[in-house]
Amino acid sequence: MTTATTANQRSAQTGHVQRNTVLFRPGVRPVRISGFSTTFDVRTILITAALVVAALAVAWWNMISGSAGITATDTLGALLGGADEGTSRVVLEWRAPRVVFTLLGGAALAVAGAVFQSQTRNPLGSPDIIGFSTGAYTGALLVASFGFTGLLATPLAAVAGGLATGVLVYLLAWKGGVSGLRIIIVGIGVSIFLGSFNTYLMTVLDLEIAMSVATWGAGSVNDITWAHVLPLLAILLLTFPVMLSQARNMHLMEMGDDAAAGLGIRLERVRLVQFTCGILLVAVVTAAAGPIAFVALVAPQLALRLTGASSVQLLPAAAMGALLLTTSDAIARAEFLPASLPVGVITLILGGGYLVWLLVSLGRSRKAST
Length: 370
Fold this sequence. Notes:
GO molecular function: transmembrane transporter activity
Number of domains: 1
Pfam families: FecCD
Radius of gyration: 22 Å
Subcellular location: Cell membrane
Order of helices and strands: HHEEHHHHHHHHHHHHHH
Distance between the termini: 27 Å
Transmembrane segments: 42-61, 99-117, 129-148, 154-174, 181-205, 225-244, 272-296, 337-360
Membrane topology: Multi-pass membrane protein
């Protein structure tokens, strides 16, 4: 055994290999301020900034496009408080909540996807694959079946359904701890069961309620108001700082449970915090717009490929999620005017194609490795 190999093994026990790899990767710069030290990746910052600019550009396009004939000047005037009452109502009460929700909702779904993909160490570890979105839908259907369809009933039931599904998956996957593969397998099984149960609930609901719930279940932002945006903003402000503080733990846990535990990470406590934050983000979006498929699956992986990072990162994933959902909404509106498709239909088409490509790529890489 060489001296270099021995040194690397000693460094692995203290986490120095990970730090040195990051510090000396091209484009990564160390920062030290008053005893505080961190690193920043120039490429990641530039990619994230570009994604944010692109998302805002598409959002502005969504603000000025539509069948009402409102120009960019009219829109800007409404935002600045200088437009007539009709224009202000269209821009501020109809379009602005929808645009803001797609930006924030896409970011929320992407962050949740990054959390679960990091925890499971698998690109398929997405909340819509492992059942949390389906569970939120189940909660909404259950309250609808009892006749509760108010503004607060559906969101609260969706959040409760998502959390309950998360607890169920976690408990069923527990075996002296949890592993990423068990979470995915158990989550897929729970998702299939809940999907069948949701279909049954749809058959016993009153026709009018069933049609309303079915539209919501397709993932629609057509009826979004500020009353839907504010809870999403509150959950983001609550959970995102927590997730940013957990970013280092996320990356260390991707090295494996044994290595992370050796570095002082309290595995189950950290998992519980991250799982709770991820489920809350998914549930609050699902509560307002219904289950929007594949944004959580696709956004972290696309951001990962663009930045060239070794593991999923929260900020690029959030920016990519905002761009994906905002662009999907633009397609849903622009291609089918004056009608508007549920945005979930567009994300389902785009995400389904990505999922097929991902499965084929994984199959080829495993075949090549053997």
